[in-house]
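Researcher: I'm preparing a figure for a lab meeting and need a structural model of a single chain. I don't have an experimental structure, so a prediction will have to do for now. The sequence is pasted below. Please return the structure as tokens so I can convert it later.
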Amino acid sequence: MTNLDKVWEAFIAVLLGGVGGFARLLHERDRKKLKWVLIVSELFISGFTGLMVLTLVRLLGLGGDVIAFVCGMAGWIRPRILGALEKPAEKNLGLNTAEAKHDKPANKKSSL
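Model: Understood. Here is the structure written out token by token.
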């Protein structure tokens, strides 16, 4: 696969993730109340999720139509996908959110 093919595949993954997220947004909300900020943020986050899932699917050696399906569905169910990927990513990066929460200083009133 050439670099151009990989870029094209990534573009399609972002597009399908965004379409999946937008479809979910339309399914869950009253279309009359949709605001541009909500639409753009949904497209961005869902596209990001599609790209992250593309990376995982490539690592698993899957291709073709499976990639299209998985990236589109990732956009549709993005909160669960991102939540599921969060803990393994933190573990591999050496981050422990449970310890980080305990390391934060308690909210103290300023003497100023």
